Amino acid sequence: MHIDLAHQVARAALVPFGLDPEARLDFIKYRENHVFRATDPDGASSAIRLHRPGYRDEDELRSELTYLRALRQAGVEVPEVLPTRTGELFTLVHAGGESRHVSAQRWIEDARPFGDIESVLAGRHHPEPEAFVRIGALLGRLHAAAISIGVPADFRRSAWDASGLAGPAPLWGDPRALASLTLRERAAIDRALPALHAQFSALPTSPSVFGVIHADASPENLLETTDGVVLIDFDDFGTGWFVFDLVTAIFHHAHHPRYPDYERALITGYTRERPLGEQELAAWDAFMLARGLTYLAWAAERPGDPASDFVATEVAPWVARLAELYDQDEPSPWRTSTHPLPEKDPR
Question: Per residue in 269-319, pLDDT tens?
């Protein structure tokens, strides 16, 4: 959708949500959804989300927004969902010949992303370990609340389980489909996938280790505020192993010289809120590889997108190297020494 048309849809959504129809609309970002900031004349702001068509149906959207409300009521630092004037959690908006499901949230003031994925992977992001303590604690509170809330009977979201991560039809697609992969890289991934699936299939799925997760706690979805950290964008949340959220929060710092400090800090913050089992910790590096493979699959389905091109050139060689090490039962780079992103192998 062209940005001008997206702007029309966002403008048309203001009245159903009881917002000032003359509010200033600022485009914030587009990744999967278009996000705008609506600012009323009195200064109050809201986030207007135009959901990508065909990605989530109404039951899935309702599950997301209902659960988000439950998490916030449980004291977890997540956005406040704004209902429509009729009490619905989202609405279908028609404008300019287009139709989009739209939801709204209270704008989080004085917040900034913990990091930008590209700058993190390029080695230009150097947080102190204490930042990961705060992130770990937030994820611990998220999971403790998820255990308490449970999985509602009408919950409609996919599972980041063995099949969702490494099965024949992973949730984000096939990482081997990324066109930039060399034959050697594709072969390494092809060998790693069934081994990952077998390892994950052997993990327990009891409620203490497997439940509702965010599934995309990347640096861009962790907002730092004066009061702490807020987790946003539950577009991909579902059920899965809790440790997968921790791995996602630190994956992009995997080749940073201070990665060991960051990992320890993340786990320290998390275990202040709830325990982390030995089996989960033992599978940490396997989940790191699985997380990397999801990004390759994401990029494979979006050729020509600048973010996809970045994944293809900068992330894919690193992930393929992880797949080779995993296949050879060799330790991951962060368990031995600091490695830069490897050069592209021409084979």
Answer: 999 999 998 999 999 999 999 999 999 999 999 888 888 899 999 999 999
Cα angle 169, 155, 145 (rounded to 5 degrees) comes to: 105
Closest CA to 17 of 82, 98, 99: 82
pTM for this model (two decimals) = 0.93
Q: What is the largest CA-CA distance in the chain?
A: 61
Report which residue type is found at 241. W
Cβ pair 21, 1 in contact under 8 A: no
Token representation of residue 271: 């275990």
Helix, strand, or coil (residue 323): helix
d(CA 276, CA 270): 8
pLDDT of 98: 86
Q: Tell me if 133 sits within 8 A of 265, measured CB to CB.
A: yes
What structural domains does the chain harbor? Answer: 3-107 (3.30.200.20), 113-335 (3.90.1200.10)
